[in-house]
Amino acid sequence: MSPSGVLHSHSIATMGADGIGPEVVDASVRVLQTLAQLDGSFHLDFHNFDWSSRTYKKTGSYIPQGGLDELRKHDAILFGAVGAPDVPDHISLWGLRLAICQPFQQYANVRPTKIFRGTKSPLRQANHGDLDWLIVRENSEGEYAGQGGRSHRGQPWETATEVAIFSRHAVDRIMRFAFQSARTRPRKLLTVVTKSNAQRNGMVLWDEVAAEVAKDFPDVKWDKMLVDAMTCRMVLNPKSLDTIVATNLHADILSDLAAALAGSIGIAPTSNLDPTRQFPSMFEPIHGSAFDITGKGVANPVATFWTAAEMLTWLGEERAAKKMMDAVEAVTERGITTPDLGGSAGTKEVTDAVCEELEKIYRQHSRK
Ligand code: ATP
Predict the structure, then answer these.
(1) Cα of 299 to ligand 1 centre, how many Å?
(2) Oxidoreductase: is it a keyword of this entry (predicted)?
């Protein structure tokens, strides 16, 4: 209950979509319902949207007419993954995920990474606490702006262009968001990833705007790193990094590397934020549909649990989000993990264990 005694209610749109998406979203809804019930201070109202590659194959579109207006009525969106073996990836990505992110101006894509207690990084010298990053990805333009075209189709001289767009407006707002995010973390340290040695237009504007915005954040220490050198630094010196800002494409690639260095892509969350809060923000695990393990009951739900905790924080339920993460980490510490983290538990066992931990945490809390 809030100090005024009013029960907060949040309306959540869920969209498992494809592959293991529905499995990990269903598991997260179970954990969130358990959490809300135990906590008693907020209520979550879930509304499922059955938009997926199945719908596309049946109707010719991922999002029905008027669908975005319906989706907009919710406070947040919990998304699974989109992609099917028989639908080209650019159709599924642009048909659903980007068709939500772009009109909803979810321009900041935020990807935290850390090594969970009880889990191991493939890096020999990195332990829990040695790798704790926040990657901020520009999510509205750059290399994924959709600008370009194809001509002379089928001819030997066929040509295609993929034009990266960098506008001062979008670079400025993501830099401000990144410096602000760095400021809220204890180390107040930001690395700006670039490729301005080879890409001398867009990336030079990117660097210039970073330097201008930095002047408004004198308390944040920052440095600049070429994207290729950044991959080496992430592997060889993970402790030297904290908050990282990069373009749409660079951050997309670096965050998969980050997830793997933390142990598995099965633990990494994403928030697609509209910081103006004009539109609902969308929360999803980093991983894709993972066809190879779909339906086998072994998908790691931790990425979506962490995603759901990030969603709660965004909705103002920080206390409950922290309890959810405490429960998840107590479970990894007990060694109850899916095969991608070296364990032998299934999605359901991990989910059951997180719900049990939550019950323990709230029992201890009520005794205090
Ligand atoms: P996308 O391009 O949509 O990001 P992808 O096809 O590149 O997706 P994923 O679907 O993320 O890749 O799968 C990459 C690998 O990681 C696969 O072997 C998959 O089984 C594994 N994987 C992904 N997510 C999970 C998860 N939650 N639990 C366990 N393994 C996972």
Answers:
(1) 9
(2) yes
